[in-house]
Amino acid sequence: TSAAPAPADPLPADPAVTVGTLPNGLRYYIRRNPKPEKRAELRLVVNAGSILEDDDQRGLAHFLEHTAFNGTKNFPKNELVGYLQSIGVRFGADLNANTSFDQTVYILPIPTDTARIVERGFDILEDWARGQRFDSAEVANERGIVLEEWRGGQGAGERMLRQWLPVALKGSRYAERLPIGTRESIQAATPAKLRRFYDDWYRPDLMAVVAVGDFDPARIEALVRRHFGAVPRAARPRPRPVPGVPPNAAPLVAVATDRETTRSTVTVLYKRPHESTRTVADYRRGLAQELYLAMLNGRLAETAQKPGAPFLGAGAGTGAFFARTTDAFQLSATVEDGAIPRGLEALLVEARRVDRFGFLPAELEREKQDLLRGYEQAYAEREKTNSGAYVGEYVQHFLAGDAFPGIAYEYDLVRRLLPGITVAELNGLARGWITDSNRVIVAQAPDKPGVRVPTEAELLGVFRRASEAPVAAYTETLSSQPLLARAPAPGRVVSERTVPEVGVTEWRLSNGARVLLKPTDFKADEVLMTAYSEGGTSLAPDSAYMSAAQAAQVVALSGIGGFSRVDLGKKLSGKAAGVAPAIGETSEGLGGRASPKDLETLLQLTHLHFTAPRLDTAAFQAFRAQAAQAIANRGLVPEQLFADTVQVTMSGGSFRARPLTAATFAEVDPRRALAFYKERFADASDFTFLFVGNVAPATLRPLAERYLASLPAIRRKETWKDTGGAPPKGVVEKVVRSGVEPKATTLLLFTGPFAYTPENRFALNALTELFQIKLTESLREQLGGTYSPNVGGGGSRAPRAEYAIRVSYGSSPENADRLTRTVFALIDTLKTRGPSAADVAKVREQLVRSREVQLTQNAYWLGNLAGRDQAGEPLAGLLAPYDAMVRALSPALVQQAARRYFDTKNYARFTLLPEARAP
């Protein structure tokens, strides 16, 4: 073995990455990574964000990110988005960008199977870097879109942010440079102001190109040099300042309230200078911090699950505090209304408990096991890691200098460093963080009658009380019993068949249960499982519906077998395996995942979820308190009232679609919930267990025989019931008035009967994909009336064979009707003239490109195999028949789908508008 690295040793750069700097100062990072195949992730990173805006440019760093998609040297007007859609890249979902205080990052995923596509990708990066045009008409149109993005962000959270941010960032420029800007600054944006920001800050010494994907790195490096090598340095570059957040001797206290917020929270932050990760010592410090926070968060989560807990949820963390130069250690809690002082005191006492008595050796050992397990999994996946997972490291290196040594080096380093990190070292870790100076306290609460909000003096008084409060040592009693008290007597596989078209093996077990297995090599350290059976809450009487609906949650929060939820987490430390139950309207089941080496643990947990569910009344009381707080303030949120109206209306006023209130939640009886759960999982004979991932039949078979074939079976035949709740017929229009912000949300729902076949599902999906393109083109790009229009839809087979298409968009209240008229005009055109061949080609390419990646993902196979199996459709139809449908996609097919599914005599229109103001 090599010698252990010294603390001062610099962390190396991952040798798989080509890093270089052009003579003009532009940096580049290039890595070949063939996962997914025929794809690359490209980034243009600009070390400039809203913090660099002049006073007359607020919001323009972000505005400029928008104009990058609307008129460049090689792609005039909207040609850039249209071109990318033609090669299967979706706008928003794939192609995107983001602007923050200190940087702007442009995101461009592209196919790499033709040299021309890759070349055009670099044309786009170069255009973003130096070819933006700022056409006055395009800027004027984009202003509407940016204003709609600003409008969509308005609400309780934004209003409270503007209350506490100036206090928390006192004396810092960051308080005045939120990236979105202000309504006034967006309206005042001009091509000249945008051009000035672009010329000042979009220059090679402040930029980097990151490319990770399935390509030849030498060819990509040549493209970088060709496209960016000739970009001139700035003749007189403006100095790039690095602002910070000034220190504060006295605490900074902000109390923010709003009539539409739903939660009372308190956060205390301790600022300190930023620490980069560049040496072995830095890396070790990061590991120590991660272990400390994991143990403290474990204790906070444990406290929150006790009846009468001082907070509903709490957490600790450390990270950047707005500025690159400033970090903060943070303690935060969500509390019952009026209980902010109590929650804050409990947080401070918990941190003091660690300082005084320290952590237990067993706590540290568990967290070390979990931490090491995470690195072990990452190392196992080193040849199968998606390109998108790498780019963030290289972006961070360019912007902040943090090292990227690569998982092989990191895994080796962690194994060397972890044993030397001791409880004694971690116990005092936070002493340097928790200080009287550089303290920031932020309290937020609903502004409503009866909710007491603490004053600044009261909050500061809590710190004095917490420092004097008696503190006892933390104790725990851990059971050494195994997960399963006794290994069950195995059953057996009684029949086997294969579906060679999709590589699936099917077993029928001696208790009647089915097992489907698709072995894959997509990931080295992943096995996914889903189990399903028909029935669900539809089989509960109305009188027990609320208990049935919460049954899976009640069991999940209670733990399993002989272990509470908290103790189960401790028992499973160092293992990568987990199972969660779910009970829907028409089915019940389990979802699970594991590392191949922890597959037996996954099967044991599955067995226990059938045979040993439990009720933890203390955990349920804590859950009830959390739910009561959320329910009490649901009515304050305009979007929640809107969603409730949609739910009640579209179910025809069904009893089971009642909005959640204190009264309806009071109907939940935890014992009745557990009884319903046990009844749903009493018969394994009608369950199917589907596994997808890195597991061979010979490995899974004995485990399935022991833990699945041994499950109880009563061989009953059952299915779901239709309990009502069908959507209304005809045209329904509802207006909800709620909220103070001048914004509107429109939702159109088209519903009707549906023949649930693969062909109809495909046609419906193609229609919604195409309508998404048309809606974005029209409502956003042409009218500038909305930021992010959305189209979604699908068919269902249970409890009714029906389809639903959802069309939604935000806008100004005065523009809502105009946009809706445009939507119906687009629908009419689609039905009478059909779509263009070019638009259908875009959809076909998007479906082909998505499919290429999806077929290498375990989760995609799991969902699709389960869906087809539950519908009684042959699994063999998943591949070749679908490909044939894609090839046959035509304008006529989409037009026919539009005529069938956009039924303008059977739809509902819901509009959320601001509450009426008194004259």
TrEMBL record:
GO molecular function: metal ion binding; metalloendopeptidase activity
Protein family membership: Belongs to the peptidase M16 family.
Enzyme class: hydrolase
Domain Peptidase M16 C-terminal: from-to ranges: 190-369, 673-847
Keywords: Hydrolase, Metal-binding, Metalloprotease, Protease, Zinc
SUPFAM superfamilies, alphabetized: LuxS/MPP-like metallohydrolase (SSF63411)
InterPro entries xref list: Metalloenz_LuxS/M16 (IPR011249), Pept_M16_N (IPR011765), Pept_M16_Zn_BS (IPR001431), Peptidase_M16 (IPR050626), Peptidase_M16_C (IPR007863)
Pfam families (alphabetical): Peptidase_M16, Peptidase_M16_C
Entry coiled-coil feature ranges: none
Protein name: Probable zinc protease pqqL
PANTHER family linked to this entry: NARDILYSIN, ZINC PROTEASE PQQL-LIKE
UniProt record, GO biological process: proteolysis
EC number: 3.4.99.-
